[in-house]
Amino acid sequence: MFDPTYIDSYSNIDAPYQRLDARVKIIVTVAFVVIMAVSVNDRPLRVIPFSLIVVFLAAISRLSPKVLLKRMLPALPFFLFASLVLGFSKGSHAAIAAFLKAFLSVLSVIILVSTTRFSNLLKGLEGLKLPTLLVSMISFVYRYLFIIADEYGHIKIARESRNFGGSKRRQWKAIGHSVGTLFLHSYERGDRVYSAMVARGYEGNVRTLGMQEIKKGDIIFVAISVIYILAAGLISWKLL
Amino acid sequence: MHIPDGFLEPEVWAPLTAVSAAAVAYASKKVSKDLDEKKVPLMGVIAAFVFAAQMVNFPVGGGTSGHLMGGVLIATIMGPFAALLMISTVLIIQALLFQDGGITALGANIFNMGIVGAGLGYLTFKGLNRVTGNLNFAVFTASWFSVVTAAGIAAAELSISGVIPIAVSLPAMTGVHAIIGIGEGAITIAALGLISGVSKDVFYGVQTVEARKVQRRPIPWILLAVSMSVAVFIAPFASDLPDGLERVAESLGFLERGTSKVTSPLPDYQIPGLSGGISTSTAGVVGVLVTFGLAYMIIKVLHRKRN
């Protein structure tokens, strides 16, 4: 169905951005999205200093525009449509600004996630004080989502080969039973997963191969980036 | 669909992010304590179930279909705090890996679906179950209500940010979701029915069905439906003419001396910024629900005092 290795398939390229600590990349991405959201408001020209940041990040991660645009495609229709709707109430300037903000935010997140190994990304989130319980749950959802979604697919096929149809009420009842069954299967699967992990030494921590350490390069990068992002915010606010 | 970056005003998403962050932090602590810490894989896999359940598509008529939200479904089984965590997990993954929903909007999305959808939905379920003793009624209404309210709040957030006027967004969102909510309610009942058939003690924080089977009372259902119908359909046609007291005040000249010491949120039974029949209907529905909620709380307090 969906290839789980797709999401961080560019994390193994030898490029400067890939080598940075996950925590630093997350901080820079979040700072970028937040400060852009606060400074640009409804003025499209203000986006320009921020777009330079994304270009820079794409360059140091060796991700080609083609790859980035391909990854953007699923999300594009939604904020495109939303921008059109916004255009009717706030005018074309605001609509363009909103579209560009959404566009650049999505790009920066794609760059972050494509260039960071998923387990390192989670470790980075944990290092930034996201509750451990939440981080563990994120890792499990990622691992089991596709399996459980596939299982629902099987239930659906079985249901449809057994004369599914008729009134909406009847259909809802059947769908409800499918969802209930899926829950029971998931619950039991979760129990088995837990037992299997305990049998292999699980004690509650997410483990990654390399220990996370902040190197000189990380500090320099995050300092320069955050300063630049703040500067971009100020410049766009004052001049554009 | 979750709200992307760049559409909400900071005045809207910043406070919502703060509230959501606090709620998630609190829920994490609470669940870590109650849950056997090592049962995390179980919760994780069930969170994956929530994600998959939200992909379930069901027909709502006219060739259209809706998606399950599953807030009340998961909250009645796992409790509101675990449900909030699971929904937040799903939303975070959707924002990061699928770019469905923005980073600045994450707090708002978690608020809409986790806190309002699951948390308020669970409280509604518990309250209705307590008051009516009818489990199916409680589940259905709470599921329906959680979907409609979550949609309404999202519409309000977008409208406050100027994306779309409230006169358009509120009726559109709540109208569509009022229909989708029916499907959600029916599916939730069927799912819980199947699950509770397998394991009797399934509902979190609520007595099982057996003990309360005797007390099935459909009357509250009818009364609530009647109240809502009056608010929605009849209230807008209420007469504009002054009532007895106002008429006397006008003719004797002391109408002007009436002042309000408190700023009213819904002056004259209208939603500020919205006009016409829809405004009155919505204000009416809000009033019915608030009154219902207050009455329930008073009854609960009195009940406690008596015992």
Please specify the SSE layout and strand pairing.
The complex is a heterodimer of chains A (240) and B (307).
Chain A: H1 16-19, H2 22-40, H3 47-60, H4 65-72, H5 76-90, H6 92-114, H7 118-127, H8 132-160, H9 168-199, H10 216-239
Helix pairs in contact in A: 2-6, 2-7, 2-10, 3-6, 3-10, 4-6, 5-6, 7-8, 8-9
Chain B: H1 10-34, H2 40-53, E1 57-61, E2 64-67, H3 71-78, H4 80-97, H5 106-132, H6 135-160, H7 166-198, H8 209-212, H9 219-234, H10 244-252, H11 277-306
Antiparallel strand pairs in B: 1-2
Helix pairs in contact in B: 1-4, 1-5, 2-4, 3-4, 3-5, 4-5, 5-6, 6-7, 9-11
The proportion of residues in beta strands of chain B is under 5%
| CATH fold-type name of the largest domain in chain B | Arp2/3 complex 21 kDa subunit ARPC3
**Main sheet specs of chain B:** 2 strands, antiparallel
Low-confidence stretches of chain A: none
Query: In DSSP terms, counting alpha (H) and pi (I) runs of 4 or more, how many helices of chain A?
Result: 10
Enumerate the spans of chain B where pLDDT stays under 50 for 5 or more consecutive residues.
209-216
Order of helices and strands of chain A: HHHHHHHHHH
Structural class of chain A, please? mainly alpha
Strand and helix order of chain B: HHEEHHHHHHHHH
Mean pLDDT of chain A: 89
The largest pleated sheet of chain A is described as: none
Rg of chain A is 22 Å
Count of distinct strands of chain B: 2
What would CATH call the class of the largest domain in chain B? Mainly Alpha
Percent helix range of chain B? 55-70%
Structural class label of chain B: mainly alpha
Report the β-strand fraction of chain A as a percent range: under 5%
Q: Provide mean pLDDT of chain B, rounded.
A: 85
Largest interface: A-B, 79 and 71 residues
Quaternary state of the chains:
heterodimer
Write down the overall geometry of chain A: flat
